[in-house]
Design brief:
The protein has 68 residues and is mostly helical. Helices cover 54% and strands 9% of the residues. Helix 2 packs across helix 3. The protein is globular.
């Protein structure tokens, strides 16, 4: 099953740019774009870093399509 995420929504709600998020996580902006567009599933380590960054659980940010 494909993985969906709410990163763009959460990032916008927190007024964080793609560039700022990428810099803070030490990844490229292109990686953020690919994740937000569901073109790339982050590693478990990166998913945990993103979750910690926004102080949310992984389950709040990522879901399997059809399990909402």
């Amino acid at each position: 099953m494909p993985v969906e995420n709410r990163i763009k929504e959460v990032r916008n709600n927190n007024k964080v740019t793609q560039l700022k998020l990428a810099e803070d996580l030490q990844i490229t902006r292109q990686t953020i774009i690919a994740i937000e567009n569901n073109k790339y599933n982050p590693s478990l380590e990166l998913a945990l870093k993103i979750s910690a960054y926004f102080k949310m659980s992984v389950e709040e940010l990522f879901t399997l399509r059809g399990e909402k």
